[in-house]
Protein 1
Amino acid sequence: MSSPCYISGLGLHLPRTAMTNADLERMVDTSDEWIVTRTGITNRYFAQGDEPCSVLAFNAARKALDNAGLAPQDLTHIFVGTFSGDYNLPTTACLLQDMLGLKGLPAFDLAAACSGFLYCLETARAFTCLHPEARILVVGSEVCTSRVNFEDRTTCVLFGDGAGAAIVTGAANPGPVKVLDAMLKADGSVGGLLTIHGGGSACKPVLGQPVGPEYFVQMNGRDVFKYAVRCMAEVSETVLERNGLTADDVDLIIPHQANIRIIEAIAKKLDVGMDKVYVNVDRIGNTSAASIPIALTEAVATGRIQPGMKVLLSSFGGGFTWASALLQF
């Protein structure tokens, strides 16, 4: 039996520049009708040069700390889920630590693509078992647009930038939200369906050579769709079953905000109405690891989540990775 784990505060931050479908029409061969029909997205946010991944993470982190009534000095660990960090080295978590005026506490990035936040949440849950006094800053922060090819209209319209953060605490510092359960999954055999190869040791940059499409998101959308729906539904059902629940017992489902078709297909698989599913992909787009914490923070702030509710989170990302978590408010 695991020790209790809690979420004591939440925060989100979006870049200052909103990008509508009309804006994208001026950048790439697309149209509002084409984007909305296939993705449900009408708006997203693009980070500018002075808004790298660490800056988005810092702003979300400060809001989460304020929400929890804590100061940066109260933290014991920093975990950042991202595929679009400021640099390969130093890690975004180390940059964030310095921005918060801290030294010494463990800080690392975790790469699980769009499942990054839930992977970090489960890692934090494990740490609080060992350290019940822990106060862990868990952040999902992405500048997806730094890895998007704006000549590929099938992918560039999907993504936006942003960050969401949570303060995760152990039994010594219980918070208002209890993490009841979580499950992580992965399958590297199909990782080639969603890739960013350029810059890795198997696809090394060569001084003086131009940057090619391999440095940006490349995706087999049809196959990714099928895997995403099946995997997210299955892991969600498994988490519910081992807690003696069904989807009917959950008050709200927050899936990764990939696109509206995937979200609707997951609802159908779980046999729930869309009134039970939180959607903000239309306003924010796919923000990868930031997707779940942004949506969770919004749902609490707007009153969509009330005390006493059970909330199911589910995500899917490149790797492939997928995950689910069950929260009790």
Protein 2
Amino acid sequence: MNSISQPKLLPFLITTWILLVAIHLINLLFAMQLNYYGVIPRESSGLYGIIFHPFLHGGWSHLINNLISFSLFSALVWQFKPNRIWLLLVLGTLLPGLLVWIFARTSIHVGLSGVVYFLWAYVVFYGFVRRSIKSVVISIIVIFLYGGMAWGVLPIKEGMSFESHLFGMICGAVMGYIYAKQDIKNSGSLRQKIEKEITSL
């Protein structure tokens, strides 16, 4: 399945870059007014942001940094189960977005970084729980190269939505654990079925 789905990764990433850059250009034309569609905690008008916040950014550096990280972690998720990326993106948008709306500081929270932290934590936890050679190697590489991202869940930088990072990381870790356990169970069942068929010959 991976070998069949793998070529779709590049079009997916190119489409993502084009879409988010186009939205940012439109936002600039409207003097960044689209950012009012971000998550505004505990405000009814801020509920729209649970869906829209990953598409909105505060500036070019914010957007480009998020797109680079997003592309990397999407590619790593692709190595596990390519067809799962769509569900993970929905979960990585809605779950952290909802938690930000409920618990975060009163502000406007925008950016793809919550999804990025979701994918980062998913890759790490999935790899170590799944415990295949490939998944563990990927997790170790991610921790070695991007372990510093953990500082982003702390309120150490003014104007940064650390809540999006924190809730994205928590949700990604939970989903990585759940899906790894599910895949272990499914692969075990398949292995047992094959062994049973062999022994019955």
Protein 3
Amino acid sequence: MPRSTNQKMKLLCLCRILWERTDEDHPMTVPELIRALEEWDIKAERKSIYDDMEALRVFGLDVQNRKGKDPGWFLGERSFQLAELKLLVDAVQSSRFISQRKSNDLIGKLESLASVYQARQLQRQVYVDRRAKTMNESVYYTIDKLHTAIASHRSVSFKYFEYNVKKERVFRREGKRYDVSPAGLIWNNENYYLAGYDHRYKEMRHYRVDKMAELAVTCLPLEGVSSDFDIASYAQKHFGMFSGREGQVTLRCKNNLVGVVLDRFGREVILVPDGEEYFTVTIRAVVSPQFLGWVFGLGDGVEIKGPDWAANMMKVQLETVARQYQKKEPVMPPPEG
């Protein structure tokens, strides 16, 4: 039979057909494969299909042939199983630091790793309703640049901004650039943070990656970042990545909060029994409004025992919030019935 100019692409086209159109639940028979090849103007005979399938198997593809009920050829094992792709799609879809447009792009690429039938299942995965997405489209590439800087031991320079009520960017330091020696990236409270040594303030600080603009990797080497800097310890003691006064804080907790304490501070912390119903734990923490809010959220189950300055910060915080609500007229409950 006459050979078309596409005939040399026969194996490649077969590979693509198997990848996109088959899986364990959707095999293709030899006649179906032959018709699919004809879409590329490629002629094939039944015997040649068997030879091609063997060549693809030797090459390393998990090409399988099922006989009996619902027979046909299909691609079995893939780089990612469907369950793994579902997890990745859920993570991308629910991630706040990835913009909606970039999320759609990434999910489309993940779908290409499965058959068209499996991709439909990925499209119906969990959607986090009204999940706030970052408005900074460049964050995806900013993270890549930061990884490059960390790997090459180079400082970075960037502008840092907040949003005003009009959702407009307002740059800090009147638009002057920040010069930072990066120590590592932290994933906290669904946001990426860069922890590093700020050259201006001469101390370790952290910055939200999605609030960076015009980031550049400089030719300057790192400074102020010790070789034994523990990025995990830094992240653990900064509640919600808020700044404040750091110190050893002792908490007195009810026994039913053991799980809460271990989840927050790790299983390495030492729990000291304090009577029959309580225990104490001493942790290193940055006492910020976020930390005090965490303590308050546990009600009378947790008490800050020391140091005095930390307990006093909690007292002042409570009094300040109480005064704010005391200014308002009490709301009468609605009449019964």
